[in-house]
Amino acid sequence: MNSRWAPYLARFHSEHAGVTEAVLSRLRHPAGGVYDWVLEALDQSGRVLDVACGSAPSWSSVGDGWIGIDFSEAELALARRRGARPLVHADATALPVATARFDTVLCLMGLMLFEPLEQAASELGRVIDAGGCLVALVPATRPVRTRDRVRYARLLAALRRRHFAYPEDPEHIDAVLERRGFDVVNSERRSFRYPIDEPVHARLLIDSLYLPGTSDERVARAQVLTRRWIGTSIGVPLRRLVAVRRPV
Is the pLDDT of residue 45 over 90? Predict the structure, then answer.
């Protein structure tokens, strides 16, 4: 990772361990929750490596054959407290895993954080057996309702940001995977609703955002803004990717 993102992400996940799961678990859709949507694309009968597993929300659903890897000790500590095992402290660009060891790699809200993504994608491909697949969840910019688009514009204005940023552009992930030995066979977008029922939910939404270089004053202004939305919900667009590992 570069000098800007690496220390920021380390500090973020130390201070806000579990925040990603907290937000994703609150998202609502008529067809079901986020984790149900992702796991329905997963072959849970095989060996599953959960890269950037965080607080291990997938562990209890996958069961035997699951291994979680994350670079954040704070996130892994939460995973251990819920009983998730086995867990490994490592970076996605250098996985301490044997070649072709897994049938599936699962990566929830992590691919856009890996830097360099080309190297991480090579590592993900290396540890997947030929014909196995990568199932990933990444942020998206659509579909978004008009009212939500206006709200996001106001939120970005309060934060004095032009857009929400990540080390890697989520829209470029497909091309990187294709270059690194994967065939992207499915890319589906879905907009979930995040209910803001209480002040804690407004705060949680802001706490979950990656905002390097944003002042505390600006973050406080964003918190004030989102508290005005209590009693409503905001759309959160996400994209589910399924990529099959090509034979070497």
Answer: no
- At 58, the amino acid letter reads S
Pair 102, 130: CB distance under 8 Å: no
Question: How many angstroms separate the first and last alpha carbons of the chain?
Answer: 27
Q: Which of 71, 93, 77, 68 is nearest to 8 (CA)?
A: 71
Within a 10 A sphere around the Cβ of 219, how many other Cβ atoms? 15
pLDDT at 1: 45
- Contacts of residue 190, Cβ cutoff 8 Å, sequence gap at least 6: 29, 31, 37, 143, 237, 238, 239, 240
Amino acid at 246: R
Each residue of 54-69: b (16+ CB within 10 Å) or e? bbbbbbeebeeebbbb
Burial class (CB in 10 A: 0-12, 13-18, 19+), 206: buried
164 in Cβ contact with 227 (< 8 Å): no
Give me the pLDDT at residue 127, please: 97
Determine the distance from the C-alpha atom of residue 50 to the mean position of all C-alpha atoms in its chain, rounded to a whole number.
Answer: 11
Tokens of 60: 């209890």
